[in-house]
Amino acid sequence: MASQLHSVRVPAPGNAAVATTVRVRGLSRSFGDVQVLHDLDLDIASGEFVALIGRSGSGKSTLLRALAGLDRQVSGEVAVDGTVSIAFQEPRLVPWRRVADNVSLGLRDSDPRASTAAALAEVGLTDRAKAWPLTLSGGEAQRASLARALVRDPSLLLLDEPFSALDALTRIAMHRLVLSLWERHRPAVLLVTHDVDEALTLADRVVVLTAGQISHTCLVSAVRPRDRNQAYLHELRTRLLAELGVDREGKI
Amino acid sequence: MPGNRPALVEEDAPPGAAGRLVAVAMPASAAQAASVTTAGQPLGRRGNTGGRRGTAVLRLISPVAVIVVWQLVSHFGLVSTTTLPAPTQVWSTAVSLVTHNSAAYGTLQGNLLVSLQRVAIGFAIGASIGLLLAVIAGLSRLGETTVDPLMQMLRTLPLFGLIPAFIVWFGIGDAPKIILIAIGSAIPLYLNAFAGIRNVDPKLHELSQVLQLSRRELITKIVLPGAMPQILVGVRQSLGVAWLALVVAEQINTSAGLGFMMSQATQFLRLDVIIVALLVYCILGLLTDWLVRIAERRALSWRRSFIA
Fold first, then answer.
1. Taking CB atoms and an 8 Å limit, are A105 and B211 in contact across chains?
2. Are A104 and A112 in contact (CB under 8 A)?
3. ipTM
């Protein structure tokens, strides 16, 4: 499993040079007899974009829920510096609140109306502010969900496969939107995905989760916007797929 | 409906989960809430506005036919007017009950006002208690274990069997009547609101944790609006029981109210007065139902079936 090119092991605890937003040590979680996370360590630097990939059942969502504070039955240390926001896989808009009221839900802010309007403008939904969530398209709903996450000015933004239900064209537009929002606000991001290309398009660092442990970490140093046909990205992609257990012939 | 995707339905969810979510987004009450728009057909209101008036007229056909037949039966003497007074006679009785303050009955509007007041107070008390208990039981295990068994017991209790006990406990004034109406309307509202609260998508509960909503925000912005379709079904049932309880309660030891009017009429064998009172009950029932429907249209305008 050791890799030679552009990839590193998990950084040793305690020697991070930049400020860390997320510090996870010895995180374990079992559901009954099944241990989903196994003594996991992870650091995310402030402003760093990390993609977490893994096959289904590898513990991605469990890790994300632990970071979001939604799972209290974990053991180990989970420390997040600052506020956490999350955009779920399904946009999870409250259907009986209009788009703007979804964005401002629970917002404690000196001027919630203005910051909501600003967030909606950033995701291009100003004209849908008064719409009911059930009338939105999939892409619009996901953008509203992003606005709701960003309006809280999070230091850690968790993205739980937010693009997996979107069509290919909308997904590309969403990738661009997320990158521009990230560049403007610079939260640390943890993107959970099972799309290797998506991870390589967006992230500074790709972390592979296998059976509840981080089995592989690779830094992606290519400048953005990235052309996925670059030889360098192609190389990384092949190796990540191999890590995930898919060989060159596409056999599993 | 291309491009319109219900936000609560998750494409990637396992089939079972998706089914459950759909059920939450469009609760069973869609069927009961219906006839506002046709239930289960999320076609919106387009083209329906013209048809609704037509339907309203068509719906009058059968009641009108009954009245015509009834009048003909009396007119040709098929049934004696002491057994069944003719509609025209009922109408003139109604008019005189409104215009004359008789010693035996008082006025129709005076009795109506007293009855309305009893229902309004009883329903307000009962509905508030029912809703409060549903929130307590719906949001905590402890609440459920303490409140729910009691409510389930009360549910099976024959309400009107309580009347003799109520007279002993609360006398013969307004108190036992209002309490009877309150208990009667608290139970259906509790049962429906409790089920509605439990049916609110747990994912929204999780969302409220992420957004760090306060308990109060959780209740007023997520739980109650989410349970609203079911709560409104409960309100309808509660109002039905409230009217029923009123009729029964008012026939015992009253000096005013529609029920009083009826019990007086029974003593004087005035079937026409009884029929007037019964028709007033009918109209009141229809009226409250109509009010609840208006409330439903307002409160549930976010639902896809209500969106044009």
1. yes
2. yes
3. 0.84
